[in-house]
Structures are given as structure tokens and as C-alpha cells.
Specification:
The chain is 35% helix and 19% strand. The chain is of the alpha+beta class. Among the domains are: 2-163, Beta-grasp domain (Ubiquitin-like (UB roll), Roll), CATH 3.10.20.30; 347-460, CO dehydrogenase flavoprotein, C-terminal domain (Enolase-like, domain 1). The strands form 5 sheets. A 5-stranded mixed β-sheet has the order 2-1-5-3-4, with helices on both faces. A 5-stranded antiparallel β-sheet has the order 8-9-14-10-11. A hairpin with a 2-residue loop joins β12 and β13. The chain is globular, with a radius of gyration of 23 Å. The N and C termini lie far apart (66 Å). The chain binds flavin-adenine dinucleotide and FE2/S2 (inorganic) cluster (2 copies). Residues 96-102, 133-136 line the site of one FE2/S2 (inorganic) cluster (FES).
């Protein structure tokens, strides 16, 4: 069994199991040991590589996913005799101590500078927020990236890095069962391997397989099926295809314009690396009460579309998710799309998540709210949903009833918040106590006062 790809500009044939992790292939088979493995679970970024020019976590990719791809590892970015300017800057600015995080940091920085040649410090921090350093501290790392941007101002590194990446598709793939290229291929593979597990970005499934909480089985990856990617605008309704990555969704004008509530949730999900790989369909099918897209999708009254070889069915998201990690997906079915009616253009769309830090933080509590106010501030309609405070997303119709028909004010919100605190049923775990989560769930509602005032201010 062989996988053909281009690694650091060289055509490469990889032999062996398609379900070996890319980090292992790089380090063990190809002696590209610059790629490090820290956590093995998507959390540290030490294993970052560029795949077709985009940063990916090699600990959460299977070898088969390399087929026909162009990979750049840290060994591939400099000239044979000299370091890349980002590497030079890391050395000059003392941005390296043990060096374990450095290859991943450098590759994320190279990607950033190839798209944003003059980033400010905040943009640099955001771009590196999926790459953790346990010893240097981030100030020198950010200094180094800033300096590299200045050094590279006159050199077209975007062309140098990305231009080398096209791969000729002159070899037939020998493991087609793993990477269907179309829905038609997929149905055939699901028939041939009825007990195979379907996955998309792998940021949940591959972590669970590695930790042993899910047994390894045949895997079918949806990442190459173009029919499952993108957003279709049907006028008053958007159809979000299930295997669309979070990064792609953040670049979709239809999402940022009509569903800012979802865009806000996605922008704080995981890290840039997780958002490059993870998909909205994977977030829904994982059915974690902490899944960041779920509260917005409940507030939007989204419907999910489930497809199988036999046809398509559709149901409201709150009937699809029936418990933590539990959905009504049947054998032979996949989640193919999410259907959302566009909210009224003047509706306030608000999402807020409370976590331990800004990036790579599982939510302790989150709230999504869509509220319509009349010109004189009366609540004409409201849709509210909370994440991480119950076995599934909690909606609280009693709190909505308390608000609708009333003038939106701190007092009304406080009354509704008191109802919410009683309605939620959070658990205590290592991240937070149930009491803390209950209090935060109520307090998140109080923020709507600021949101509505901002919104009304804009209208005046
Ligand atoms: C370091 C790290 C940080 C994270 N941070 C966050 C966070 O802040 N917020 C958050 O919400 N999540 C977070 N996650 C979880 C994860 O990234 C998301 O849930 C993501 O959306 C999963 O998408 P995926 O495509 O990678 O799913 P996969 O891992 O590919 O699949 C997840 C599950 O869904 C099934 N599945 C996937 N797609 C389909 C489909 N179309 N049809 C049927 N079944 C399907 C798979 O069989 C599997 O059971 C984090 C994960 C990691 C590793
Ligand atoms: S090894 Fe930590 S993210 Fe891959
Ligand atoms: S330099 Fe040691 S982890 Fe970053």
C-alpha cells in the first residue's frame, strides 16, 4: 500500500498502513525529526506542518490524508545553506530555549507572514495561539515574528513557500476506501465497510481513538468530498455543508454577514490549527454540551440534514442531539448539511463563552441569544440557548416569556436570569463547579443590556 505526496518539494512514496499518524511517518520513516510530538492530542501545536500551504496538526492526521498533498516541514522552509528569515529572527531575539515548540511556532509564523506581511502584535498572538511554549514566554516569540516581518518586507516568501506546492496527480491512489472523492464513492465505501467510522477533521475522533476511549476501526474520511463543503445562500435560508471547516466558515461572507452569532462562536473555538481542521458537522455529531457551535445553532432553530444512500431526512437540531455524545444518526447515515433561516437583519445576535483562557479553552458556560427589539426597546422576539450547563444545550422558554413584550432593561434581564439559574443543570468537573456555572449562565444574560444598547445606539 503506497501513498504518494510531495514532501519539502520532493516526490515521496510512503509505504505501510494508511491509518498511521502523519507525525509518526515524518519522524520514524522519513527521519524528519524537526516535527515534534508534544501532547499528541491537538493541544500544543508542536507537530504543526503545512499541508498545501495551510498549518495542520500532524498528530491528528492519518497517513492516507497525505495522498496528492504537498507537505512542508521545518526542514523544508530554509535554503540548503541558510535559515529562513523567521528562523533567523527566532535565534536573534532569543525566542528559543529548549526548542521543542519552535518548529511549530516557526511554521505558523511563516504561514501568517505569507498572508499578512505586516501583522500587528495582536494578530501575531492570535496566529500563534495554537502553539504553546512552556519555557521562553511569548514576548520574545512575538518580537521575533515582528522582526521577521520587517526583514521579509522585500522578499516574496509567499511565492517561495506556496508556489512549490502543486503536486502532479499522475498516480492512482491505492487506498481509495479511506478517502472518498464524492458522495457516490462514499455510499459504495459505507456499503463495503458497514462498521467503518466516518470522520471529517479528526479533531475529536482521532483524539478519542488515541486515548483509547473509542476503539480503532476502519476509517472513512469526508475531507475530500466537495459536495459536503461550503455554504449555499438560498435567499432567506443558508445551507451550511457539514464538512466545511471552521476556518472556511469564517471566510464565508454569508456567515459573517447573516450569522455573526455563529461566526463569534467559531472565532473562539479551539485554536487556528483546530479551526483549520475541525468541521461544523463534527462539532454537531460529537454532541458535547460544550460544543461551541451548538448554542448558536439552537438559538437559530437550525435543522440538520441527514443523508444516506437511501435518501435524505431532516430534523430540528434539538431532536438530533439526545444526550451528551448521543445523536439519532443511524447506521449508513451521515450529517450532510445544516439549514438555517436568516435572522431579521436588525435582530441582535450575541454569543459569549466563558473559559479559562482566550484560546484552546473548553467553555465553562456559553450563551447564544437572538433578540428583536421594537424602536422603543420592547422585546418583540427572543431565542436563547446555553452551552455547558446541562447534558445538552439548554433553552429556557420561561426566561424568553419573561422578556417578550417587555422593555429590555437590567431589571427584566435580572428576573429572566434568576429563572435561567433555576432551569440549568450543570455538573461539577475539573474545570468548574456546578454553582459557578449556574451563576455564570444567569450573568451572561445580563450582558444583553449592553448589547441592545450598543445596537440601538447604532440605529440612531
Ligand atoms: C485541542 C482541541 C481543542 C478544541 N477546542 C474546542 C473548542 O474550543 N470548542 C469546541 O466546540 N470544540 C473544541 N474541540 C473539539 C473539536 O475540534 C470540535 O468538536 C470539532 O468541530 C470536531 O470536528 P471534526 O471535523 O474534527 O470532527 P471529527 O473528529 O472528524 O468527528 C467527530 C465525531 O463526529 C462524527 N462525524 C464527523 N463528521 C460527521 C458527519 N458529517 N456525519 C456523521 N458523523 C460525523 C465522527 O464519527 C466522530 O464521532 C477541540 C478539540 C481539540 C483537539
Ligand atoms: S503533538 Fe501537540 S498538537 Fe500535535
Ligand atoms: S522553547 Fe521550550 S517549549 Fe518553547
Amino acid at each position: 500500500m503506497s501513498i504518494v505526496c510531495k514532501i519539502n518539494g520532493k516526490n515521496t512514496e510512503i509505504h505501510g498502513h494508511p491509518d498511521r499518524r502523519v507525525v509518526d511517518i515524518l519522524r520514524e520513516d522519513l527521519a524528519l525529526t524537526g516535527t515534534k510530538e508534544g501532547c499528541g492530542a491537538g493541544e500544543c501545536g508542536a507537530c504543526t506542518i503545512l499541508v498545501d500551504g495551510e498549518p495542520r496538526l500532524s498528530c491528528l492526521m492519518m497517513a492516507a490524508q497525505l495522498q496528492d498533498k504537498a507537505i512542508t516541514t521545518i526542514e523544508g522552509i530554509g535554503e540548503s545553506e541558510s535559515l529562513h528569515p523567521v528562523q533567523e529572527a527566532f535565534v536573534e531575539h532569543g525566542a528559543v530555549q529548549c526548542g521543542f515548540c519552535t518548529p511549530g511556532m516557526v511554521l505558523s509564523a511563516v504561514h501568517l507572514l505569507s498572508h499578512h506581511p505586516e501583522p500587528d502584535r495582536n494578530r501575531i498572538r492570535r496566529a500563534l495561539s495554537g502553539n504553546l511554549c512552556r519555557c521562553t514566554g511569548y514576548i520574545k516569540i512575538v518580537d521575533a515574528v515582528e522582526a521577521a516581518a520587517r526583514d521579509m518586507a522585500n522578499i516574496d516568501f509567499k511565492i517561495k513557500i506556496l508556489g512549490a506546492l502543486s503536486v502532479g496527480d499522475d498516480r492512482k491512489m491505492s487506498i481509495p476506501y479511506l478517502l472518498p472523492q464524492s458522495l457516490c464513492d462514499l455510499w459504495g465505501m459505507m456499503r463495503a465497510f458497514p462498521d467503518a467510522t466516518v470522520y471529517a477533521g479528526g479533531t475529536d475522533l482521532l483524539v478519542k481513538i488515541r486515548s483509547g476511549s473509542v476503539p480503532p476501526k476502519n476509517l472513512i474520511c469526508l475531507e475530500r468530498i466537495q459536495e459536503l463543503k461550503g455554504v449555499v445562500d438560498h435567499g432567506n435560508r443558508l445551507v451550511i455543508l457539514a464538512a466545511t471547516s471552521f476556518s472556511q466558515l469564517l471566510h464565508e461572507p454569508a456567515i459573517t454577514k447573516h450569522l455573526p452569532i455563529l461566526a463569534k462562536a467559531i472565532a473562539c473555538l479551539g485554536s487556528p490549527l483546530i479551526r483549520n481542521m475541525g468541521t461544523i458537522g463534527g462539532n454537531i455529531c460529537t454532541a458535547s454540551p460544550a460544543g461551541d457551535t451548538l448554542a448558536p445553532l439552537y438559538a437559530l432553530n437550525a435543522r440538520v440534514e441527514l443523508a444516506s444512500e437511501a435518501g435524505v431526512r431532516s430534523l430540528p437540531i434539538d431532536q438530533f442531539i439526545v444526550g451528551p455524545g448521543q445523536t439519532v444518526l443511524k447506521t449508513g447515515e451521515i450529517l450532510s448539511a445544516i439549514h438555517v433561516e436568516k435572522p431579521h437583519p436588525e435582530a441582535i445576535q450575541h454569543f459569549e463563552k466563558v473559559g479559562h483562557r482566550n484560546a484552546l479553552a473548553c467553555s465553562l458556560a456559553s450563551m447564544a441569544a437572538i433578540i428583536r427589539l421594537s424602536d422603543d426597546g420592547i422585546v418583540m422576539g427572543a431565542s436563547l440557548a446555553w452551552g455547558s450547563v446541562g447534558p445538552t444545550v439548554i433553552t429556557c422558554p420561561e426566561a424568553v416569556d419573561r422578556l417578550v413584550g417587555q422593555r429590555l432593561s437590567a431589571d427584566r434581564l435580572a428576573e429572566a436570569a434568576a429563572i435561567v439559574k433555576k432551569a440549568v443543570c450543570p455538573i461539577t468537573d475539573i474545570r468548574a463547579t456546578a454553582d459557578y456555572r449556574r451563576t455564570v449562565a444567569g450573568n451572561l444574560l445580563l450582558r444583553l443590556c449592553d448589547q441592545s444598547i450598543c445596537c440601538m445606539g447604532r440605529r440612531e
